[in-house]
Known about the structure:
Elements: E1 10-11, E2 14-15, E3 20-23, E4 27-31, E5 41-45, H1 57-77, E6 82-87, E7 102-107, H2 120-126, H3 132-140, H4 159-175
Antiparallel strand pairs: 1-2, 3-4, 4-5, 5-7, 6-7
Amino acid sequence: MPPLGTTPVYFGNFLVTSQVFHKTAHSFALVNIKPLLPGHVLVSPLRAARRLSDLDHAEITDLFLTVQQVGKMVERVYGASSLNIAIQDGPAAGQSVPHLHTHIIPRQSADLDEQGGSDAIYGMLEGEEGDVGRHLWESSRKRPKFPAVDDNTRKPRTEPEMAEEAQKLAQEMTRQHL
């Protein structure tokens, strides 16, 4: 059962209800199908607005307050000392799902030293490994008995894996001092 009820929640065209761990009047937070680092989550408006400039005052206020609340929680839960918070606002900026979303990525000192340092996260967001839309689309397709090999070290997570993390994070949100 989804952690926050059965009302369908869509991220673009993708049904993500079981991945949602926090909902407000205008926003929702969901676990990422293929996190760049442990605890990488997304916050998005409930309305499928494509761009930041499409949000009204209430939606943008709610979105950023939700980003702040979820950021505090993932920083605590994942033992991070910092966060990357990023919006790819439009296709030319790397947005792969036509539904505004904010990436929240918990960071620790030297966590990407082997990939070239802390700024490597920006290339990861821009590159194929950060293409949330492609990963969601691929996971929604019927898979053959023997799926194609993914050469990346990060593998898309299964629906049950994401639902389990969403339930844990939903519990953590109730513990969070807002």
